[in-house]
Amino acid sequence: MEVELCPILRSFGSEQNVLSRPDGSASFVQGDTSVLAGVYGPAEVKVSKEIYDRATLEVVIQPKVGLPSVRERAREQCIRETCEAALLSTLHPRSSLTLILQVVHDDGSLLACYLNAACMALIDAGLPMSSLFCGITCAINTEGQIITDPSVQQEKESRALLTFAIDSVERKVMMSSTKGSFSVKELQQCIAVSQKASEEIFQFYRDSVKRRYSKIM
Amino acid sequence: MPTDTKRLRGPEESQSPMLFLPPDAQILKASSRDGSRGHADVRPIFARCGLVSQAKGSAYLEAGNTKIICSVYGPRETERKDETDMKSGRLLCDFRLAPFSCLKRGAWIQGNEERDLSVALIESLQPGVCLHRYPRSQIEINVVVLENDGSILAHAVTCASIALADAGIEMYDVVLGCTLRQDGDTCLVDPTFAEESGNWLGGYGENQGRVTVALLPNFNQVSGLHADGEMREDTLTEAVRTCMDGCHKLYPVVQHALLRAVKRKAPPSVK
Amino acid sequence: MASVQVSEAEKVYIMHGVRDDLRVDGRGCEDYRHMVIETDVVSNTDGSAKVSLGHSDILVGVKAEIGKPRALVPDEGYLEFFVDCSANATPEFEGRGGEELGIDLSNTLYKVFNNKHSIDLRSLCICPGEHCWVLYVDVLLLQCDGNLFDAISIAIKAALFNTRIPKVHISEDAEGGKEIELSDDPYDCVRLNVENVPCIVTLCKVGQRHVVDATLQEKACSVASLLLAVTHKGMVTCVRKMGGGSLDPESISEMTETGKRVGKALHAPLMDLLKKEEGLGKNRQKVGFLR
Amino acid sequence: MKDTPLSNCERQFLLKAVEEKKRVDGRQTYDYRNIKITFGTEYGCCIVDLGKTRILAQVSCELVPPKDSRPTEGILFFNLELSPMASPAFELGRQSELLVKLNRQLERCLRNSKCIDTESLCVISGEKVWQIRVDVHVLNHDGNLMDAASIAAIAALSHFRRPEVAIQGRDITVFTPEERDPIPLSIYHMPICVSFAFFQQGTYLLVDPCEREERVMDGLLVIAMNKHREICSIQSSGGIMLLKEQVLRCSKIASVKVSEITELINKALDNDKRARKEGGKFGFAESMPKERITALKKDEAPVEMTDVQDTANEIISRTEAQPDIVKVPSPVVPAPGTGQVGEGLLNTWGLEEEEDEEEEQHEKEEMSTGEVMVLSDSEEDDVVILNPDANKPKRLEGGSKKGVEAPKKQKTSH
Amino acid sequence: MAAGFKTAEPLEYHRSFLKENCRPDGRELGEFRATTLNIGSINTADGSALVKIGNTTVICGIKAELAAPTVDAPESGYIVPNVDLPPLCSSRFRPGPPGEKAQAASQFVADVIESSDVIQKKDLCIEKGKLCWVLYCDIMCLDYDGNLLDACIIALLAALKNAQLPEVTINKETDLAEVDFQKKNRLKINRHPTASSFSVFDDSVIIVDPTAEEEGLSTALMTVVTDEEDRLCMLHKPGGSSLSGEKLQDCINRAVMRNREVSKLIDKVMESVKAKK
């Protein structure tokens, strides 16, 4: 049985260096979903959080309404460990890195948008990384169709939702977070779709960096 | 709007099904103990050391349905540097009732009852521990009550003292605990939860109360004494004596458990 | 808790004194320090009292509010205790420094009143299962000079004696709903029966003997003390061993006996005093906080 | 993290500039920085940029029981957050003095001025009212947070629409935006804060101080006013002494600024309304500057997806080809209610002294119910039984018996 | 000597074992620790289970309470899982509110319940819009030696299977609920998810069921949740080193095997209790 694919990425865009105070900042927009990210560091670290051979990374997610809850805490963990794997934090031992993510609007694929905004902000902050990463969300709807970059409405209608972080070097899965149940085949298809879609986003990263430094080079 | 953002929350309000019982039904039947055990008998207890692999010392104690687990960490450097008395160590206690341990579900956030129990536990254990041997350090005692079927303070004291011994903390003596429930002229040693709350809160009789004693068995010294309710002085004195007898009955079990733990840690050399 | 440092020589001096039934301030082992009690000191409470015992100063206010009875005892009201350790008493209490002591003190008070006779809780019931009076007993420590428990319990008894709860009238409207109406007349009120309210007697073991109403110096010489809450009939409503030391069974029974005797003896003069003060009427000269 | 300290040189430079009526960003004394107001796709969401200061406000609503003292009034709740993004000095979850001050001031400006008709928020008197919650997030701190926050909050409140409700007896139906158009709040007036920074004990004055200027100022005067020139709140801080004339002068300046800003907000609201009506594009995605070198945008596009199916199928078939007919080990049940599966830890039961063996036997025979507690590392089993008067034997400890069958080894292929 | 090596160079110590395809505790790379399950030991809970995976010990107690359903979902009850890591279980946890690890675990358990449909929330409804059950699933770790998530899911599932709720009827006349403790019903378990955790060493070597020490030294952790039909309910990999689709597939296959083992264990234990009664 061949599964129908609906591999469309909504229009997306990003602006770097949007805020004056943080050492690196970026906004990332996917369709109507929009996230603002700010990075501080490397800077002085609290003794209680100090790690002797690498930088301590803290990720904070700020919801738009109310206080962060357990769900945000779990997502912070996912994003932090993804960033940690990409960052060469051993180059800044005993220092602190702080990444703050602010939701501006949620219209689906929020976790993916967090990851993309985080990556752009880390690039803007000029932190050394071993690879870049991007986030892709796939929704499987009741007909078994795979939809990339779903909107809130599409997320609601789906029976499973999978978000992956893909690395830029080997296009492997760095992070995975899923909701709903799905078959092994669907999983592998979603991974393959995400890997393909990641090409677009990595190309976008490259283009935006090229554009940014076009006057210098 | 103080809300617990660090836990998953359910509905704002929920009630225990026990509140919806038809009025004539009773859940807590004050048992008469007929045939099962005498009024002055403690429940059979089961004690064992060293189950928490990560802890310096630990103990698990079961008395009837009351189930208590305790682990001990330390001695380690004290966190409170401003403490005036640095010449001797400090005992710290984190006492928790698991949310499912009581008939009514408890909250995760430590309540007054738990704080009170931890203060009482420290007061009872302190005389038994050679704290002067641990200057500038703290010893952490963590107690979790998995099931509360009465006499938790007394059993927590016993359990914690076994755990302390298992952790190799120097002690003058183990500390044993025993609770008694006074109901008019009868007294029930080591009461279950039903006996503990029983008709005391419902009735208006005289001489109602609960006494918990912590004892250092080898010195025959009382290291902790807590009583509430309403009792005559002579009843109280008698109750303390009965509790002390109850404590002595536990001693062989505790001894046995510790002996085992020691044997396991240092097996007798085969010559 | 507020404490003092005592040198070895001082300790020996105090302990020898206690052995001979002569304490540093001239008291015998079973004597209380000078006590000053005044009731009705805070106007916006339903009952209040201020007690000074030596230099320990305690202010207690009682507020009666209408609440919902507890599910398990629908025909009774209840008491809530809160002890505030103000930084006025000692700089140690600044910030959250007094919190631990405050909780400890209020927990003990709950235990002292955890019985059926201290206060007739049924008299606080307005409408079973729906409305009852809740007495909020707020204790404020103004100055600490040892023996807080005893001073607090006396202040609470005095404040409860002073408490006047407005009378309520329950009327039923047409739909069977109940309406509660508070009496406007300040003299139309209910008094509490405080006869059975216990007083706490703390006995400090110093050397081989034990003393009542220990000063901070004496407290520093003792390793263990026994707290007893005693009613005027000599009933014990709460016992607690405090301090890092242990007690032998004989001294426990001796101390209980002393505690009962001292506690019993405390009630009669206290009640007399309270009645006498009340007899002076509303227009008596108030001392308040100036002394 | 600590804030970057301000050097003495910088401090002196800034003060000198103030004396010479110059400002670091080239503004005049009474000039505001550029104000940009953008609305999101959602109702009640707005971002305000005041120079480099950026603030996000979001209004939300919820049906709640009213306060006992005001049974017919809706509830307004303000929550201003200093996000750690805005400045390295802001720590997460800390109630700093600045945070408390700003929150208080925002409440005074917007709640106490009664600019919103709270009675219109009542659904059923004494039972259900709307609670309007305003979350204000400071995203970038470059001074004058108060003015920016008040603009953001009032703009977001004016933009907000709450769902329509219908009441039938005591049942409340809340309509989705698709069913019935949501309705705006009724706003009487728009109070806006204007801040004045004072230097040299009140000798010099600056409108809309930036972060640098705030650091060297002596005192601050905040006036909240609406376009009808009604003062809604006024507050001076920093302990400076001002003359009556100074305060009056400030209020005059404030009235000019407030009418300008009010106009700006109304214009922004109108633009957004028009865009929505005409079905044009609106929201933050549209407000992203396209001409900037730091920004890039890519239009919606399908992704080329050849051989995705093949890749997936290949992976599955390859791993499935591996024989995994390993038998599932069956668990051992040493006592009712207890079971164990797997191998590994050795169990010393039965290897110890005979006494133990007996004890175990003894228990097993007399086990009264199926409820058994096991809490042990199997190598550490110590059981001690006390049975003082042998009335009723204790039931416990089902001893975790070792799995009997030979260990089955499985492998994840590497 | 070995002890010194282990303390000074823990990573090298582990590597030297992994090179030989085994682990310091004698296990093979794909081997789980002995798993012990005990159910119904807590009488005060409506359902309870204690699970040991090696040294890791987790206890789950279920308390059912009554509440009104939400306006949005008038026909659904609530399931409220919370994982607690008290200072008792390891010195790495401090007293006070739950830390990130406990919160992430709570969210994980909640997500598994949601994704796998273990229990249909509709089954918890007693009267539409009026009354429903709230299942508080409180999970407490008593000994933390790695692989918390697997233990939590087994404990949760077994406790749910063990749970019995009293019958509740709504009295038509008084419109009040009445509870009959004599009649107890079991919950309807829809699906049987089990979790299998993996840990990646040096971005390449995958081991199953990591101990606390192995978790600390590894470069990535992953948990796969499958149900009895071999469908995936969760592929939880919170960052860390990246894995290819093939490697993930290997892990999933192992997880499917593990599901069989655990299901059998739970079934047997359930049977043993029933047989007794």
UniProtKB/TrEMBL annotation, chain A:
Presence of keyword Secreted: no
Superkingdom in the source lineage: Eukaryota
Keywords: Cytoplasm, DNA-binding, Exosome, Nucleus, Phosphoprotein, rRNA processing
Localisation: Cytoplasm; Nucleus, Nucleolus
Matches recorded under SUPFAM superfamilies: Ribonuclease PH domain 2-like, Ribosomal protein S5 domain 2-like
A cellular component term, taken from the record's GO annotations: nuclear exosome (RNase complex)
GO biological process: nuclear mRNA surveillance; poly(A)-dependent snoRNA 3'-end processing; rRNA catabolic process; rRNA processing; U4 snRNA 3'-end processing
InterPro entries: ExoRNase_PH_dom1, ExoRNase_PH_dom2, ExoRNase_PH_dom2_sf, PNPase/RNase_PH_dom_sf, Ribosomal_Su5_D2-typ_SF, RNase_PH
UniProt keyword 4Fe-4S present: no
GO MF term list: DNA binding; RNA binding
The Exoribonuclease phosphorolytic domain, residue ranges: 9-128, 132-196
Main localization category: cytoplasm
Assembly mode: Homodimer. Component of the RNA exosome core complex (Exo-9), composed of EXOSC1, EXOSC2, EXOSC3, EXOSC4, EXOSC5, EXOSC6, EXOSC7, EXOSC8 and EXOSC9; within the complex interacts with EXOSC3, EXOSC8, and EXOSC9. The catalytically inactive RNA exosome core complex (Exo-9) associates with the catalytic subunit EXOSC10/RRP6. Exo-9 may associate with DIS3 to form the nucleolar exosome complex, or DIS3L to form the cytoplasmic exosome complex.
Family: Belongs to the RNase PH family.
Protein name stated in the entry: Exosome complex component RRP46
Source organism (scientific name): Chanos chanos (Milkfish)
Gene for this chain: exosc5
Automatic annotation (TrEMBL), chain B:
Gene3D superfamilies: GHMP Kinase, N-terminal domain
Record-linked Pfam families: RNase_PH (PF01138)
Keywords carried by this UniProt record: Cytoplasm, Exosome, Nucleus, RNA-binding, rRNA processing
Signal peptide: none
SUPFAM superfamilies on file: Ribonuclease PH domain 2-like (SSF55666), Ribosomal protein S5 domain 2-like (SSF54211)
Alphabetized InterPro entries for the sequence: ExoRNase_PH_dom1, ExoRNase_PH_dom2_sf, PNPase/RNase_PH_dom_sf, Ribosomal_Su5_D2-typ_SF, RNase_PH
CC annotations in GO: cytoplasmic exosome (RNase complex); nuclear exosome (RNase complex); nucleolus
GO-annotated molecular function: RNA binding
Superkingdom assignment: Eukaryota
Locations listed in the record: Cytoplasm; Nucleus, Nucleolus
Family, as annotated: Belongs to the RNase PH family.
Stated role: Non-catalytic component of the RNA exosome complex which has 3'->5' exoribonuclease activity and participates in a multitude of cellular RNA processing and degradation events.
Subunit structure: Component of the RNA exosome complex.
UniProt-recorded name of the protein: Exosome complex component MTR3
Source lineage: Eukaryota, Metazoa, Chordata, Craniata, Vertebrata
TrEMBL record, chain C:
Example GO molecular function: mRNA 3'-UTR AU-rich region binding
GO BP term, pick one: U1 snRNA 3'-end processing
Domain Exoribonuclease phosphorolytic: 32-166, 196-261
Annotated localization: Cytoplasm; Nucleus, Nucleolus
Keyword tags: Acetylation, Cytoplasm, Exosome, Nucleus, RNA-binding, rRNA processing
Coiled-coil segments on the chain, per record: none
Tree of life domain: Eukaryota
GO cellular component terms, A-Z: cytoplasmic exosome (RNase complex); nuclear exosome (RNase complex); nucleolus
Main location: cytoplasm
CDD domains assigned: RNase_PH_RRP42
Keyword Magnesium: no
Gene3D superfamilies: GHMP Kinase, N-terminal domain
InterPro entries referenced in this protein's UniProt entry, alphabetically: ExoRNase_PH_dom1, ExoRNase_PH_dom2, ExoRNase_PH_dom2_sf, Exosome_comp_Rrp42_subfam, PNPase/RNase_PH_dom_sf, Ribosomal_Su5_D2-typ_SF
Keyword Transmembrane appears in the UniProt entry: no
Assembly with partners or alone: Component of the RNA exosome core complex (Exo-9), composed of EXOSC1, EXOSC2, EXOSC3, EXOSC4, EXOSC5, EXOSC6, EXOSC7, EXOSC8 and EXOSC9; within the complex interacts with EXOSC2 and EXOSC4. The catalytically inactive RNA exosome core complex (Exo-9) associates with the catalytic subunit EXOSC10/RRP6. Exo-9 may associate with DIS3 to form the nucleolar exosome complex, or DIS3L to form the cytoplasmic exosome complex. Exo-9 is formed by a hexameric base ring consisting of the heterodimers EXOSC4-EXOSC9, EXOSC5-EXOSC8 and EXOSC6-EXOSC7, and a cap ring consisting of EXOSC1, EXOSC2 and EXOSC3.
Family: Belongs to the RNase PH family.
Entry protein name: Exosome component 7
Source organism per UniProt: Chanos chanos (Milkfish)
TrEMBL record, chain E:
UniProt KW keywords: Acetylation, Cytoplasm, Exosome, Nucleus, RNA-binding, rRNA processing
Domain Exoribonuclease phosphorolytic, chain residue ranges per copy: 31-166, 193-255
Keyword Lipoprotein set for record: no
Pfam hit, one: RNase_PH_C
Any one GO MF annotation of this record: mRNA 3'-UTR AU-rich region binding
Location of this chain's protein in the cell: Cytoplasm; Nucleus, Nucleolus
Record GO cellular component, one term: nuclear exosome (RNase complex)
Record bears the keyword ATP-binding: no
PANTHER family: EXOSOME COMPLEX COMPONENT RRP43, EXOSOME COMPLEX EXONUCLEASE RIBOSOMAL RNA PROCESSING PROTEIN
Name of the featured protein: Exosome complex component RRP43
Record organism: Chanos chanos
Primary gene name: exosc8
